[in-house]
Amino acid sequence: MLNLFNIEKDSPVQHIVSECLKKRNIRLSIKRDDLLHPLISGNKWRKLKYNLQHMQATNKTQLLTFGGAFSNHIHACAGAGKLFNIKTHAIIRGPNLDINNPTLQFAKQCSMDLHAVTRIEYKQRQDPDYLTQLQARFPHAYIIPEGGSNTYALAGCAELTKSLPEHDYLVCPTGSGGTLAGLIEGSLETTQLLGVAVLKQAEYLNKEITALSKKAAQQSNWQLLTQFHDGGYGKFTRELWQFCQTMQQQYNLPLEPIYSGKMMYALWQLIEQDYFASGSHIMAIHTGGLQGLDGLKYRGLI
Ligand SMILES: Cc1ncc(COP(=O)(O)O)c(C=O)c1O
Fold first, then answer.
1. pTM value?
2. What is the CATH number of domain 42-148?
3. Probe residue for ligand 1, chosen from 30, 36, 43 as the CB with the greatest number of ligand atoms within 8 Å
């Protein structure tokens, strides 16, 4: 029987003290979900928690998912497999795998089976016929989509809001939209939610978010900010990386430039543009992903 509750120490909330905030009479706090657990951090644990419970309820004993070679989700699923003694499989966008990359090395150390596929096959990852074939090939596997965003993931992200001190704004980085949709589900209608899209031309995510969350479809207390992608998914300017390093030095806040750094950089710009009303309390979610720094270093990108 899995003990799914043994990582449930809650993560701390860090308060940022800065002149820039003080003079605008704004409070900024960071929910440090990156500190939830060394193997499964950030929104990955929030997304996996109820999926693992559902896996157990449906009598599946293995986990199968999809991702790129540097994926935070692959890293987290491998970590969960190790922690809870679940056999894990990953369909990795290939065709060739550099097994020495830090994410895949970690996955291998956690005994995850890596199945490299061509880009054409990888494109079928949401195709019902392809998923049926995969289920036949891995009959004991519970299949989780790329990035982990599904109904069960939403419940975990909604639950996160219950552990937050009172706030006016809730901000998160947005890739597939699952985290933002879950946060909308869990929030009061008086909270303003902002998702910082980390990819280019992300307007289509508005539809995905409203499809995932009933509340998102009915309420207007949330917004997807699409102008802070900094070049697109996985791309970032020198300025953004410099900002991440400054946040580490000045506030002891570790950031990577793909998700948490992009969100914080956007947030900081909005603060400087007086986007937030005086007296407001902003809560930003650090969704983890710091393992990605090793991959960026490995590729010489930072
Ligand atoms: C560290 C991190 N933060 C944020 C996100 C974006 O979350 P979502 O895909 O739910 O929008 C991801 C991707 O799943 C991620 O790996």
1. 0.96
2. 3.40.50.1100
3. 43
